[in-house]
C-alpha cells in the first residue's frame, strides 16, 4: 500500500501519510517501531533533533534494505540552533546521526529565537543539496506570513497541530495563499478529550466499518493536510495507513467539523512561559 502525495512548491512530493517517532525512546524500541512501520508500507518517517532518536531512525532505515529514493525522511531544528550557522550545523549533525547523504524535509521546529537566521541557514542547505525541501512547524498565520515574505525562499511545509478538536481553519487560507502545504501533528490529540470514544467519530466509523483512528486521519487528509501519526502496534500502523483509502462524505465532514474547539489541546505557543521553556531547553549537552 502506498501513500498519496502532496506536491511542494519546489516539486518535491511529500507523502500524505507519515509515521512519527515522537516520544519513542532512542534504541531498540524506536528501531523496531520504524522497521515495523516500513514493513507496514510507510515510506515517510518523521523525527526531530529534540526527539533524541535520529540515530535509531537511521539504523532502521539502513537495515530495511529499501532504496533511499523510495523513502522520505523529515527532521527538525531545535531552538538552541535557531541561527544561520546553527541551522547549517544542525542539518549536518542530523545527517551524521542518521547516516544519510541528504534529508528530504527539514523544519524549524518552533517559532521562537532567530528564526530568520535559521531560515537563511536552511536555505543554504537546500541549495547545497543536503536537504530537498525546507519548512517550519508551529508557525501561526502572522509568523508564517512574516518569514515567507521576508525571504527569497518561502517555507514549503508548515507542520501544525491538527485534529478534530483543533482544526486550524483560520490558518488554512494563509497557507494556501503562500503555497505552503499544511502537515498535521497529533491528529489523535494524544487521546485527549476521549477522542477514541467520541460519539460523533464512533458513529462515522461505524457507518464506514472502520476505526475511529482511520476516520480522524481521513478527516485531516480531506482538509488538505499531510498527516503524521504514531503507533507501536504493527496492526494499527497498517490500519492507519489504510485510512488513505477512506473517503468521507460531506455529511461526515460537517459532523466532525462541529467538534472543533478552535484551540490547542496542549498549550499556546504565545504563552510566555512556553516560549521561555523553548528558549531555555538544551538538547546538546
Tell me the distance between the termini. Answer: 41 Å
Low-confidence stretches are none
Shape: globular
Fraction of residues in helices? 40-55%
Q: Biggest sheet: strands, sense, closure?
A: 8 strands, parallel, barrel
- Name the beta content range: 15-25%
The strand count comes to 10
| Mean pLDDT rating | 97
SSE arrangement, N to C: EEEHEHEHEHEHEHEHHEHHH
Kindly provide the radius of gyration, computed on alpha-carbon positions and rounded to a whole number of angstroms: 18 Å
Oligomer: single chain
| Strands side by side in the biggest sheet | 3-4-5-6-7-8-9-10
Helical segment count:
11
Structural class call reads alpha/beta
Which SSEs are present, and which pair or pack?
Blueprint: E1 5-7, E2 13-15, E3 17-20, H1 28-40, E4 44-46, H2 54-64, E5 72-77, H3 84-98, E6 103-108, H4 115-127, E7 131-137, H5 141-149, E8 157-161, H6 172-178, E9 181-185, H7 199-208, H8 212-223, E10 226-229, H9 234-242, H10 250-257, H11 272-280
Parallel strand pairs: 3-4, 3-10, 4-5, 5-6, 6-7, 7-8, 8-9, 9-10
Antiparallel strand pairs: 1-2
In short, what is this structure?
This protein has 285 residues and is α/β, with parallel strands linked by helices. It contains eleven helices and ten strands. A hairpin with a 5-residue loop joins strand 1 and strand 2.
Account of the 3D structure:
The chain has 285 residues and is an alpha/beta fold. The chain contains eleven helices and ten strands. The chain has an eight-stranded parallel β-barrel with strand order 3-4-5-6-7-8-9-10, surrounded by six helices. A two-stranded antiparallel ribbon has the order 1-2. Strand 8 (157-161), helix 6 (172-178) and strand 9 form a beta-alpha-beta unit. The protein is globular and about 50 Å long. The protein starts with a strand and ends in a 5-residue tail after the last helix. The mean pLDDT is 97.
